[in-house]
Amino acid sequence: MASRSLTEMSKFLSYVLRHAPGSIGVVLDSNGWAEIDQLLERCRAHGKPISRETLETIVATSAKQRYAISEDGRRVRANQGHSIEVDLGYMPVDPPEVLFHGTVTSSVDAIRAGGLQKMNRHHVHLSADIETARHVGMRRGKPVVLRIAAGRMHRDGHVFFRSDNGVWLTESVPQDYIEW
Ligand code: HQG
């Protein structure tokens, strides 16, 4: 019973922190953080009371590490999975002149027509080297590696990020920057 209600509360927190903070009047900052005091007060006001202790238990026991509490203990956020626009903290970085994208033959026509789109993710994923891109493509079938004129994109105003594990990220790659 206790764990079921923890799961229910966790799902409610996911809904609020990833998708609909406004549904209970919570404001997230641009990095996705909610003030814990405000969050818990708003949960209570909407008939879904969660104590500070229970929140800490949910954060600590979530199998997928869905949430994080800030170092000062005052804020909480979902680590990923947002449908609302949040910046999880990657800083814009100057890309190298050329990056690579691994895809598959079956996607080539659509990419020629519409450029690279982020599909279900927050960004298009690019690699610094051909071999990594080839492996990304191979996950789906016969790999095709595209050369991306990342330096030119950047000079034209496109923003790039690099994740902690070295993946290059950008919003989209118009076909003009893909060197076939
Ligand atoms: C393709 C793994 C049609 C795109 C890997 C790709 C990576 C289009 C697929 C990370 C298209 C999306 C990301 C368009 C792009 N029309 N197809 N206009 N634009 N595509 O999985 O890059 O395990 O979302 O080429 O290591 O394959 O998740 O992206 O084939 O870093 O941590 O649509 O996933 O990391 O597929 O892989 P994905 P991805 P994780």
UniProtKB/TrEMBL annotation:
Top class in the EC scheme: transferase
Pfam families from the UniProt entry: PTS_2-RNA
InterPro entries linked: Ptrans_KptA/Tpt1, RNA_2'-PTrans_C, RNA_2'-PTrans_KptA, RNA_2'-PTrans_N
EC numbers: 2.7.1.-
Name of the protein in its database record: Probable RNA 2'-phosphotransferase
Family: Belongs to the KptA/TPT1 family.
GO molecular function: transferase activity
NCBIfam families, A to Z: PRK00819.1-4 (NF002014)
